[in-house]
Design a protein that fits this description.
heterodimer, A: 684 residues, alpha/beta, two-stranded antiparallel ribbon, 31 helices, B: 79 residues, alpha+beta, 6-stranded antiparallel β-sheet, 2 helices, 19% helix
Chain lengths: 684, 79
């Protein structure tokens, strides 16, 4: 038997993904829709010997064509790729969800309505007339509860049945307003939504013209309604039908929408019992969480907690992880020795691959905890409140309210921070946020500040390190403001976001989501970072004369000497420093270990080591102003390989990745140049 | 009475939309959310910078200042 393709569609926050996950579990294929960065999830299911392919469509409010998600979903359904549509509706918020349902029914494809969150409906003492609702809609209506995995079999059963016969039930209406209809056809037996005479007359006129100009056209009624609504895409497709000639100047888009909502009100009146007994839990919580005065501190406290969990509890796990990686690396080392593997290959595996990829893997606990916390906030409904709470402050910087979260996380690690930019809906806002985030001083840069500020600034060391954070925030704000100014199309502050009901997050969905992120991260460590580690190992261990133990004969040192002239104007014209900065591209901590290796100071972080290192630098003419310039440069220059890979992954664009790298490098150089030159003038 | 917009309405009021004056894209987005002329909505919260939380057809939305200014109101009553 043929595989049945089922498209899952629904409003945002209707529990569609939870329902989808309830069927597929973690066995789903995540890809992107062709050409865009909207995720496409697919899963397979076997039920009663029938194969189903489930496709999760983006969460949308309507099937107009004003957002990318809407266009995608509509095109996918129209392209005949899908056999049955499962329209997931939040039963506790039926009035809103039915708008999409009516549009889907109008499309003429088999639709099954899955009424999700029936448990909440019952909790609130509401009742939905499950006999009358399908009668009025003309499609099967199946109550489900995705979180408790109830009604799943019945829903698939309905889907299997509904895939072959489109109309089996007669639609029973009694519209009080339509009693005196004078429209020549009575559509009430055929269509769910029947409009007023004026609109029905026009639909007939347009339909006739469509059939005449485009013989063989399918979905005539839907296309006619879309033309009447002045839907850009459809109007262009059937450009030979001149709307103005048929109906004159009047526009009907608002009326079509309004009449759909009128019908929804009718449905609600007839099928929803006790609709006014809604629990006010969400409103009570919102009175506190979105409070004009308390909202902000509460949010900051929550973020502080997330930050704490990610980077302190996370770091405990990181240590455990490190021990595991050390054990692995020792085991591999023993194995390589006993297998008599050559020195070069051993070095490649140990110093290159294990050190490089292992170093990235150690971030895994941080990433895991961070995403656990973020999904928890998202799933509970709090995240959309953040957009409201932070809207004023962030919009002054030309950023969306939600951009605050990635920026704050940037203080920990740019990798999860850039990944967290997914919380932003608008692609333009996402790019801006991704470009700004790496300017936040990540925790790996701290060892560099500590080392150099202690050597050169003695008792003021702490203030100098703190200054770096101030510079970091200042730069991020500056960049955001400048980007906002550069943006020609002055984007309005178009905050428009649903604040869903608060609910207890679903453990299954959270785990699946976090697992997806971790898998993403691991596959990146396995590819991009693997290759980058090998390249960096190669330039550090090979020179013009082949393999070398002496780093000063390596390609890295040639490269370092080559860029010395570039770094001289900013006070960093020392080849060892240059090489350290290059290795810092792999990970920022490596700037310190690079210095340690190149200057031959093994205990560089101890007081003795610092003193020796300081003396060595001072004999080279490297003074406190050079140190300040170095710290500023490390703060602002290229993000590490892992971050670059993440930026590429999230923007899906080499162009933006290159822009990010070039911009940071440029800004770092200019800022260090100013600091060094001005500083030198003052000191001399 | 002078034309009002959602931006000038107070928190805790029930308002009726008279017209939406925004760019087509935003106007259509609001329309599909059911915020059309004649619809009534409540303002649940309002921030000093002008962002508001409204409840329309059973759903809460946070709306920025610029959008709020484009939603014209024909009457506004305290709940």
């Amino acid at each position: 038997m043929k595989e049945i393709v089922v498209g899952f569609i629904g409003n945002p926050n209707c529990g569609k993904t939870t329902l989808f996950n309830a069927y597929t579990g973690a066995k789903l294929k995540v890809a992107n829709w062709p050409g865009v960065t909207v995720e496409k999830k697919e899963g397979a299911l076997k039920y009663h010997d029938i194969d189903f392919k489930l496709v999760d469509l983006p969460g949308i409010y309507s099937l107009t064509s004003y957002t990318m998600e809407e266009r995608l979903s509509r095109q996918y359904i129209l392209d005949d790729e899908v056999d049955v549509i499962v329209d997931v509706a939040d039963a506790s918020c039926l009035e809103r969800n039915l708008f999409l349902t009516l549009q889907l029914i109008e499309l003429g494809k088999p639709v099954v309505l899955a009424l999700n969150m029936m448990d909440i409906v019952e909790e609130r003492g509401m009742e939905i007339d499950l006999h009358r609702l399908p009668e009025m809609l003309g499609i099967p209506v199946i109550p489900v509860c995705a979180r408790k995995k109830k009604g799943l079999d019945v829903l698939m059963h309905a889907v299997a049945h509904h895939s072959d016969n489109i109309k089996d039930e007669k639609i029973i209406h009694h519209h009080p307003n339509h009693k005196n209809s004078e429209h020549i056809h009575d559509h009430h037996d055929d269509y769910t939504v029947v409009y007023s005479d004026e609109i029905e007359d026009n639909i007939d006129l347009i339909s006739d013209r469509l059939v005449e100009k485009y013989p063989g056209i399918s979905n005539v009624r839907w296309n006619a309604i879309k033309i009447l609504e002045n839907d850009e895409e459809i109007v262009n497709r059937y450009s030979e039908v001149d709307l103005k000639k048929i109906i004159g100047k009047k526009t009907y888009e608002k009326q079509v929408v309004n009449e759909k909502y009128d019908f929804i009100e009718e449905i609600i009146d007839e099928t929803l019992v006790n609709k006014n007994t809604k629990a006010a839990g969400t409103e009570k919580l919102d009175a506190i969480l979105t409070h004009n005065i308390f909202g902000l501190p509460i949010f900051l406290a929550i973020m502080a907690l997330v930050f704490f969990l990610t980077f302190s509890v996370g770091n405990i796990l990181v240590n455990v992880f490190n021990m595991g990686i050390d054990a692995l690396s020792n085991a591999v080392s023993d194995l390589l020795v006993s297998a008599n593997v050559g020195e070069t290959l051993t070095s490649l595996i140990m110093d290159g691959i294990i050190a490089g990829v292992g170093g990235i893997l150690t971030f895994l606990p941080n990433i895991f905890i961070l995403f656990l916390a973020l999904v928890f906030l998202e799933d509970s409904g709090y995240m959309s409140r953040v957009a409201y709470i932070m809207d004023g402050i962030m919009s002054k910087m030309g950023l969306s309210g939600r951009a605050f979260i990635p920026m704050l996380l940037g203080f920990g690690c740019s990798v999860p921070a850039v990944m967290a930019s997914r919380a932003l809906e608008n692609p333009k806002d996402r790019i801006k946020t991704i470009l700004v985030t790496p300017f936040m001083s990540c925790s790996a840069k701290l060892p560099v500040y500590v080392l150099f500020s202690q050597i050169f600034f003695n008792q003021y060391a702490m203030y100098v390190a703190f200054l770096m954070y101030v510079v970091s925030i200042f730069m991020a704000i500056l960049i955001a403001v400048v980007m906002g100014k550069l943006d020609k199309k002055k984007s309005q502050n178009s905050l428009l976001i649903e604040l869903p009901e608060y609910k207890a997050p679903n453990a299954g969905s959270i785990l699946i989501y976090v697992w997806e992120k971790v898998k993403d991260y691991l596959s990146k460590a396995g590819t991009t970072i693997f290759i980058a580690s090998i390249i960096i190992w190669f330039i550090m261990n090979f020179g013009p004369s082949g393999l070398t133990d002496n780093i000063s004969e390596s390609f890295a040192s040639s490269l370092g000497k080559f860029i010395v002239p570039l770094l001289a104007p900013i006070g960093l014209g020392y080849w060892r420093i240059a090489v350290s900065l290059i290795s810092g591209i792999a990970a920022k901590e490596l700037v310190v270990s690079g210095c340690s290796v190149l200057y031959g100071v093994s205990n560089i972080n101890s007081p003795d080591g610092q003193q020796i290192f300081g003396e060595l630098l001072k004999t080279e003419g490297f003074s406190s102003i050079n140190a300040l310039s170095l710290m500023i440069f490390v703060l602002l220059y290229i993000p590490c390989i892992a971050t670059i890979a993440t930026i590429k992954n999230e923007t899906k664009s080499w162009k933006w990745t290159a822009v990010s790298v070039a911009m940071q490098l440029g800004i770092a150089w200019i800022t260090s140049f100013i600091v060094y030159q001005v500083g030198s003038l003052i000191i001399r | 009475m002078r034309d009002m917009d959602a931006f000038s309405c107070k928190s805790g009021t029930k308002n009726i939309v008279s017209d939406i004056k925004l760019n087509t894209n935003l106007e259509r987005r609001l329309e599909t959310l059911g915020l059309t002329a004649g619809t009534s909505f409540e303002i649940l919260n309002k921030k000093r910078n002008g962002a508001i939380i409204i409840k329309v057809r059973g759903t809460r939305f946070a709306i920025g200042k610029d959008i709020a200014k484009g939603i014209c109101i024909e009457r506004s009553d305290n709940i």
